Amino acid sequence: MIAILHGPSLDDGVCMEIGYAAALGVPIILITTDFQTYSLTPDGPCLHFPDPLLQTLATHICRTHRLGPKEPAHGPSRFDRFAARNLRQINTAVDECVRAALHLPEPKPEPPAPRRTGTCYLEPTPLSRPRPEVEDAVRASGHTPAIASRFFAADPITAAQHDWNAALKAELLVADVTGPESPPGAAVLLGAAAARGQRSVAYLPRTVFTHADGREPNARNLMIQYSATLLITTSNDLERELR
Fold it and tell me: Where is the region Disordered (predicted)?
C-alpha cells in the first residue's frame, strides 16, 4: 500500500485504510512532504506524524520536506518558479517511493492474535480531555479496559507498538472519534478492526451532521461510520450496548 499523508490534519479515510492493510500484513509506504515534525510533549522525541502509531506501522516512510532548488533569478515569474520547486519536490518523493516499493520484503501475514475474552481496548481522542465516563461504562458492562498509553509515554514509538498489539488482542474496540475528523489513531484502529472482524464502537459525544444531495446525513467520514459496528453518542448508551 502507498498512502499520501500530510499533517497536521491527516485524512481519516486514508488512516483507516492504513489500519486495514496493516492488520492484513500488507507492506505500507507512507509519503509526506510535510516540513514539520511533531512531538507529544515540548521536549519529547520528534515524529513524522502527529500520531506515532502511523510511524510504527509503516514499512517505509518517504519524507521530502524541502522544496526543490531555486530557479535562476532571470527565469519565469516568481509564481512559476515556486510552482516548479513544488513540482520537483513531489517528483523527488515519487522517485523515492518507487525505489522503496521495488525493494520491499515479501508480505508475511501474521496469524490473527488470539483475542482475550472480556477485554476492551480504549482509544481516546488526543484532541480533548480524558473521558472517565467511557472507562466507567466499559467497566460497568463487565469488560476489562486496556487504555492507549502512547500519548503520555517517554518512548511513544515503543508505546505505540504496545497499543497496536493490545488493540489486536482485545475482544472489543471503543474509539473516541471526536475532532474535526476522526483522529488518526482511532481511524487506524477502526480499519484494523474491520479487517479482522473485530467488534468496534465509534464514540462521538458531540455530533455535528453534514449533508449532501443524494447522500444520507453523516456525522463522520462514511468509511468510519460503515466500518464501525456501532456509532454511539452517550456513555449510558455505550454501557447498555456493551452488556
Answer: 105-131
102: amino acid identity, one letter: L
pLDDT digits (tens, 9 = 90+) for 105-153: 877 766 666 677 899 999 999 888 778 999 999 999 999 999 999 999 9
Using DSSP bridges, classify how beta strands 215-218 and 210-212 pair: parallel, antiparallel or unpaired.
antiparallel
* Rounded Cα–Cα distance for residues 125 and 136 (Å): 16
Decide: residue 53, CB within 10 A, 0-12 exposed, 13-18 middle, 19+ buried. buried
Average pLDDT value for residue range 52-65: 95
pTM higher than 0.70, yes or no? yes
Domain boundaries, the chain: 2-102, 116-242
DSSP 28-80: -EEEE-----B-SSTTSPPBSSSSHHHHHH-SEEEE--SPPPPPPTTSS-HHH
The cell for 240 is: 447498555
- All 3 cell numbers of residue 47? 515524529
- How many other CB atoms are there within 10 angstroms of residue 97's CB atom? 18
- Among residues 130, 217, 137, 218, the alpha carbon closest in space to that of 176 is found at 130
